[in-house]
Amino acid sequence: IFQANEITDELWEELEETLILGDVGVPVAQELVERTQKRVERENIKATRDAYLILQQEMVRILTPAEPMRIDDPRLLTIVLVVGVNGSGKTTTIGKMAHWYKNRGRKVVLGAADTFRAAAIDQLKIWGERAGVDIIAHEPGADPGAVVFDAVRASQESRQADLLIVDTAGRLQTKYNLMQELEKIKRVAAKQVHRAPHEVFLVLDASTGQNAISQAKSFKDSAGVTGIILTKLDGTSKGGAVLSINHELGVPVRFVGTGEQIADFAEFDPVAFVEGLVG
Amino acid sequence: SLTDKLQGVFDKLARQGKLTEADVNAAMREVRLALLEADVNYKVVKDFVARVRERAVGREVMESLTPAQQVVKIVNEELIELLGKPAPLNLSGQTPHVLMLVGLQGSGKTTMAAKLALRLRKSGQRPILVAADIYRPAAIQQLEILGKQIDVPVHSEGTSVPAATIAKNAVRLAREKAYTTVILDTAGRLQIDDQMMQELEQVRMVTRPSEILLIVDAMTGQEAVHVAEGFNQRVALTGLIMTKIDGDARGGAALSVRQVTGVPIKFLGTGEKLPDIEPFQPDRLAGRILG
Ligand SMILES: Nc1nc2c(ncn2[C@@H]2O[C@H](COP(=O)(O)OP(=O)(O)OP(=O)(O)O)[C@@H](O)[C@H]2O)c(=O)[nH]1
Ligand SMILES: Nc1nc2c(ncn2[C@@H]2O[C@H](COP(=O)(O)OP(=O)(O)OP(=O)(O)O)[C@@H](O)[C@H]2O)c(=O)[nH]1
Ligand SMILES: [Mg+2]
Ligand SMILES: [Mg+2]
Fold first, then answer.
1. Does residue B19 contact residue B71 with C-beta atoms inside 8 Å?
2. Would the CB of A144 count as within 6 Å of ligand 1?
3. Is A202 on the interface with B (CB under 8 A)?
4. CB A89 within 8 A of CB A257
5. Are B96 and B174 in contact (CB under 8 A)?
6. I want to staple A109 with a disulfide (CB 3.0 to 4.6 A). Which of A30, A161, A239, B111 is the partner?
7. Is A159 in the pocket of ligand 1 (CB under 6 A)?
8. H or E element: which one contains B155?
């Protein structure tokens, strides 16, 4: 690719292509390039490298959350619901999150509310052991709402937990009855604890393309998603769809998953993320 | 829909008997947007649009169609051709036939292994499932539960025996017990993870599969091309299976992966239950990608 130091017309097509290849999607890619062009003009920018920096600034602006997470607010018991489509990395992420918060002094309990998928409860139990936290589970096939009810009560009473993280079954956002099931799970938690769930994380696979936006919209409507956890960023996909999700829905990325081990988990850093996408 | 968007484009241009270059250029912009929105890879879209443009300019608009419909017809035909003919599983030659399932983490391999086993059992074969994922917590239990649901045996050796050894032993067992098909479920992995890709090469070497099937999630975005290339370069793929097509992901990755590997799409995963598998049909997938 011809690397000019002075800005030429090819640059704008190159920027748009880089963004689209990163799964940013055409509308947001075009908007970002337009914003960059306007600023380049207004600020009298001449060097290609500076145009890239301006683009990165505009992307960081979109990705920077307006508010901190509720998970850190002081309260007796914080309830976190983890949702998302099949195979996105929910169960693994919960194991990592348990480890993360236990290391930060929280008393964590996990709720095994995926009562549908083969060996889902076994899988979460292994993660619970690795993280050194308790798990509340019923038998496969049990009502997920009943598991949540039990997990909340155990967290409050026998386990004295201050953070309950609930795993749910993967579900495609187009399945009405499964999305209804999520609403029901939320209501169970809300009945037991004031303003619960305090955080609803949508776990999103970074290799997902434009369907991520449809996922975020549906899960936001049914489950009240408050944040995104972007997984599998250790792969070659850039996860650019989160720009549209922020831009259109205002849902921020809070954490990232960068591997299959318990420590492969970090707070979302917009600057590092953007450099990975268009650096 | 694409037809509606193209209709809008052609309403602004004069109606003619043939598609002019101006007509086609305007239409190709909409086609490009539709394909990118459907997650077809940027470079694949470029080549595709160039090919369609060539076929469309100067083309007669058929009596029964509007110019917009004529362009959609050309795009649809080109898509169907690229997606390729449906192809069955290669079960030729001496039994046991080995099917090896590979792909990224969470793409649906374990579920698809069981789906294929059920399908084969129903068609008179004697399949055996092999739990060659020694990494994912409770992966073996997952496959064992699925195997029980469909009355297909599962060969496993725990998580301390190398995957290639488990696979090799399974093939020998299959030969001894007259199983016709050995279905290898492997661990999810990144195509850039050299050590894990080496493991795949070893499994392939000791089992000589008649099918190496890349399992691809329908919602995969632009990187589908590099993922497929990566797997294909290390273990020559013989087929593709796209999963989770029961959602509303457009599935453009199918076009990208097919284009870059030349490998046939064999099946689609259409749900979470084990009967939810269908043979690939190019016209239905083409319509879905076009939106
Ligand atoms: N490379 C990589 N793999 C990951 C990451 N997070 C999860 N995985 C893998 O992705 C696969 C699916 O993870 P799960 O935790 O089972 O996903 P899930 O969303 O709970 O799946 P369902 O419950 O079936 O919907 C597993 O093989 C995980 O090891 C990540 O950050 N990087
Ligand atoms: N809706 C739907 N869900 C599917 C389909 N295929 C698989 N799943 C679900 O997707 C999730 C992941 O499936 P797995 O079979 O565990 O995927 P995997 O590739 O074996 O995952 P790893 O072994 O961790 O790499 C599970 O929740 C499955 O039930 C499908 O066609 N449609
Ligand atoms: Mg899970
Ligand atoms: Mg698996």
1. yes
2. no
3. no
4. yes
5. yes
6. A161
7. no
8. strand B154-155
Q: Shortest CB distance from B42 goes to which of A21, A126, A241?
A: A21
Out of A130, A260, A262, give the residue to mutate to test ligand 1, the one with the largest number of ligand atoms within 8 Å of its CB: A260
**Which residue from B280, B198, B194, B263 is spatially nearest to B224, judged by alpha carbons?**
B263
- Cβ–Cβ under 8 Å, residues B280 and B266: yes
Kindly report the CA angle at B50 between B48 and B52, in degrees rounded to 5? 70
Q: A119 and B250 in contact by Cβ < 8 A? A: no
Q: What is the mean pLDDT of each run of 10 residues along chain A (279 residues)?
A: 74 97 98 97 94 97 97 96 98 98 98 98 98 98 98 94 98 97 97 97 98 98 97 98 97 98 98 96
Counting ligand 1 atoms within 8 A of each CB, the residue from A92, A130, A238 with the most, and so the one to mutate, is: A92
User: B129 has which bridge partners?
Assistant: B154, B183
CA dist., res. B229 & res. B257, Å (int): 8
Beta strands B265-269 and B277-279: pairing type? Answer: antiparallel
**Three-state secondary structure string covering chain A:** CCCCCECCHHHHHHHHHHHHHCCCCHHHHHHHHHHHHHHHHHCCCCEHHHHHHHHHHHHHHHHCCCCCCHHHCCCCCEEEEEECCCCCCHHHHHHHHHHHHHCCCCCEEEEEECCCCCCHHHHHHHHHHHHCCEEECCCCCCCHHHHHHHHHHHHHCCCCCCEEEEEECCCCCCCHHHHHHHHHHHHHHHHHCCCCCCEEEEEEECCECCHHHHHHHHHHHHHCCCEEEEECCCCCCCCCHHHHHHHHHCCCEEEEECCCCCCCEEECCHHHHHHHHHC
Summarised one tens digit per residue, pLDDT across range B205-259 is 999 999 999 999 999 999 999 999 999 999 999 999 999 999 999 999 999 999 9
Token pair of B79, please? 């898509």
- CA distance readout (Å), A71 to A74, A79, A198, B16: 8, 8, 7, 63
B11 close to ligand 2 (CB < 6 Angstrom): no
Q: Which long-range contacts (CB under 8 A, 24 or more apart) does B18-25 make?
A: B18/B58, B18/B59, B18/B60, B18/B61, B19/B56, B19/B57, B19/B58, B19/B59, B19/B61, B19/B67, B19/B70, B19/B71, B20/B57, B21/B57, B23/B67, B23/B71, B24/B53, B24/B56, B24/B57, B24/B71, B25/B53
What are the b/e assignments for A170-209, b being 16+ CB within 10 Å? bbbbebeebbebbeebbebbeebbeebbbbbbbbbbbbbb
- A228 class by beta-carbon count within 10 Å (0-12 exposed, 13-18 middle, 19+ buried): buried
Rounded to the nearest 10 degrees, what angle do helices A241-249 and A48-63 cross at?
50
